Each structure stands twice: as C-alpha cells, then as structure tokens.
TrEMBL record:
Any Pfam family: Glycos_transf_1
Molecular functions per Gene Ontology: hexosyltransferase activity
InterPro entries assigned to the protein according to its UniProt record, in alphabetical order: Glyco_trans_1 (IPR001296), Glycosyltransferase_grp1 (IPR050194)
Chain ranges of the Glycosyl transferase family domain: 239-406
Keywords from the named record: Transferase
Protein's name in the database: Glycosyl transferase group 1
Length: 434
C-alpha cells in the first residue's frame, strides 16, 4: 500500500471520529555521549553556547513569541549564539533580524510523514542541517517540532525540548498514523532536558520521565516589549483610538480563533445577556483565524441581531496588543486546553480582572475569587452570569484588578525565566559552571 493511500485512509478515519488513542510506546533512549559536548564545552564556559532553535512558525502567537523573547534575552546576555529554523514564515522573522539573529524558513514536514520511512527521510534532512550549523545544542519549541528532536539525536547533538501543550499524550498526535505518532511520543526520552511551562502539564507526561530529565520553568513575559504605559491617561488614549465609549465595558479575548481556544463560549454568553447589559459591552476578539472554526464563529456573529452583532469585533493578530489590554475592562480566557498562557500574564500585568476556564496551568497563574472567576469550558450560561456579575459590580471589578497586579508581582519574572533557561542549557551540554 502506498504512503499516499495510508495517509488518505488515516485522514478519513480521523474525519469520521474512528481514530482512537495512540498506544503507549516505550520512550527512546539517547545515545548522544559526552563527546558530543566538545563544541559546547569550548563555548559553554568560555563563551556563548551555539544554539539552533526550531520554531513551528513565526506568527504573533504565544509559543512563538515566547521563544522569540527567550532567544533574544539569552543572546543579549551573552549566554547563547542563536540561529533559528522555522517551518512557516511570519512577522517574528523581522523581530529576530532586528537583533541580528539569523532565521532560516524551511518547508513544513508534518504533512509528509505518513510512514516511518517518510519520517526518516525528513529527519535525515534536518539532521544534516543541524550538523552543517555546527551547533553545540538544539532547542525544540512545542510538541509539533518532534522531528527536530529526532534529528538532533541523529546528528549527535544534545537537545532541550520545550513543551507548551497540555493535551493528553495519547491524543495530541492523533492527526498522525500510529507508528509515526508513537515515534513522536517516544522522542520524549531523547532530550537532555524536557522543559514544561506548568506543573500540570508535566504531570500529563510524568510516566515517560525515565531519565529524570523533566523540569518546570514558568513563563515570564518581557514587559519591555509593550510601549504602552499602564496608567489612566494611556487608557483614555487607547480607548479613544479603538472607538470605545467612556461608559462602555470592553471585554478582551486574545488568541487564534480555534476550537481549542473556545471563543464560541464568549459569543454565546454575550448573546444570552439582557439587552440593557449587552448595550454597555464591547467584545474584542484579537487573533482571528483561517480555519473552519473561525469561519463558523464569524458566521455566528453575523447571525446575531444587529445591535449585538455590531458589539463584537474580530481583529487580526497585532504587535500593538498592549493598546487592547490598556483599553479593556475585563479579560476572558475561554480555552479548553492551555498550559501556562502568556495572555493571562499580560492581562494581569495590565490590571485586568479575569474570567477563565480553570484548565491545567491556569490554576498556577490566577486565584479564584481574588483576581479571577472560573467557568467550565463550554458552559456559556455560567460565563454569561460571571460577565453580568462583574459588569454590574464596578467595585468588585476594581478590587479584582488590584489583585491581578499584586498576583503578577508574585509570578516568575522575565529575567528569572531567562536565567533558568540559561542554566538548563549549560546543564544540557554537560558544562554547568561550578
């Protein structure tokens, strides 16, 4: 049976809901020895570590932005000399270039790996790229880039894998046929260090920590990237720029429009609010999307009665996201699955009360009843009640805003996060300074 036929059959099974969980594989064991640290040893103690970092895309998305900030931060501290490989181009390419960091954009490969044979071909190509780069360490960002972990192993270069997803290990790779999905899962045993951004996510993969290589580093965000001041005058300016009325309540949601992010919850909740209340509200969905979910969500918004329809704005991803945080009164995170979302940290930094689904690492960020209210994913009725509760109680909203700023002051800072990754990187190449 040809590879194309295997791929087609698998996709039909997925579309029909016939795809079951991926059987558990045994984790692979790394054969990268101490000799592979020669380059890292030379530059790890006496100079920066030469790092090749793999990013699934260069869009203004949480995982890609986090990698960008981390790479730039360690580069400017002299810890690493980085080069970036991305499988999809985007605006972050310019961000890297502005700091003098080289970026290679290569064709995506996940649509090609229907069999282990095809996966092997793509891994060979990536391994050659790693060898030609002459690096001492490979960073791999997100589960989607598992072929880069396999390639680093084949190239004989130690790796660090940063996992930012919280889906169950036997479900995340269901878009791939079992043999390839099992190889992707088994790759968790190869890196010198596997970094999770939340303790809840680490627990998902705990059964595979056979080398005691797992660790947790909470996300810290670089607030310097926000040119907008977090003060009353700037809030007025930003609200005027967005055309928000002084007495309106702006509810902000940030993220790609997709099923995992669950923005349909917010649209449905808004449709349930009493007219007198909905007239005071402006919904700002910043992120947009290109898939079927985004199209269906836009169709649902257009189907609302005219007054309500005009109260929902869908805005493309923007580098000027700080203006939206500064203008907003309330932040909603409606995701079904998240690890340690940076948008929650950003909302807290701007002093916003939060309504969120209490999924995975979100509970490690906010405190229910203090700076956040919870609702289960998909429960639009409860979300509507929580919105009504906060919109109608200005004093409570302001108290929660204060608590958000206080809570943010207790979170991992950007400098602390960068230092932790620097330590992990040195440890990964066996050159931990004494």
């Amino acid at each position: 049976m040809s590879c194309d036929v295997i791929w087609a059959i698998h996709r039909v099974r997925v579309a029909l809901g016939l795809r079951g969980p991926v059987p558990r594989p045994e984790p692979l064991s790394s054969q990268v020895g101490a000799s592979a640290c020669l380059n890292g040893k030379v530059v790890g103690l006496q100079g920066p570590i030469k790092v090749l970092a793999f990013s699934h895309n260069l869009d203004f998305e949480g995982a890609s932005i986090s990698l960008n900030e981390l790479v730039v931060g360690l580069f400017h501290q002299g810890v690493i000399t980085p080069e970036v490989v991305a499988f999809e181009d985007g605006p972050l390419r310019g961000k890297y270039a502005s700091h003098g960091i080289a970026v290679q954009v290569v064709p995506g490969i996940l649509h090609k790996v229907s069999t282990l044979t095809r996966l092997s071909v793509e891994v060979d190509r990536l391994a050659l790229r790693i060898q030609e780069a002459g690096v001492g360490l490979v960073w791999v960002n997100t589960l989607l880039n598992f072929p880069a972990v396999l390639a680093a192993e084949q190239a004989g270069v130690p790796s660090v894998w940063i996992l930012r997803e919280s889906e169950q290990w036997d479900r995340y790779f269901c878009f791939l046929p079992d043999p390839v999905a099992q190889r992707a899962i088994a790759a968790i045993g190869l890196p010198r260090k596997v970094v999770f951004v939340a303790h809840a996510t680490r627990k998902v993969w705990e059964p595979f920590d056979t080398r005691q290589s797992f660790t947790v580093i909470h996300n810290g965000i670089n607030l310097d990237r926000f040119s907008v001041r977090n003060d009353a005058a700037e809030r007025v300016r930003c609200r005027d720029a967005l055309g928000l009325k002084p007495d309106s309540i702006a509810i902000l949601s940030v993220g790609t429009l997709c099923d995992r992010k669950g923005q349909r919850d917010l649209v449905e909740a808004f449709s349930m609010l009493p007219d007198a209340l909905s007239r005071r509200i402006q919904i700002l969905l910043v992120g947009d999307g290109r898939g079927a979910y985004a199209a269906a969500l836009k169709k649902r918004c257009h189907a609302l009665p005219a007054p309500s329809r005009d109260k929902i704005r869908i805005i493309p991803p923007t580098e000027l996201i700080a203006e939206f945080y500064a203008a907003a009164d309330l932040f909603v995170l409606s995701s079904k699955v998240e690890s340690f979302p940076r948008v929650t940290l950003e909302a807290m930094a701007f002093g916003l009360p939060i309504i969120t689904t209490p999924v995975f690492g979100v509970r490690e960020q906010v405190v229910e009843g203090e700076n956040a209210l919870f609702y289960p994913p998909g429960d639009s009725r409860l979300l509507a009640r929580q919105i009504e509760y906060l919109v109608c109680d200005d004093a409570r909203r302001l108290r929660m805003a204060t608590r958000s700023r206080e809570r943010m002051s207790q979170m991992t800072t950007f400098d602390e996060m960068v230092a932790a990754y620097g330590g992990i990187s040195r440890e990964a190449i066996g050159c931990m300074s004494r």
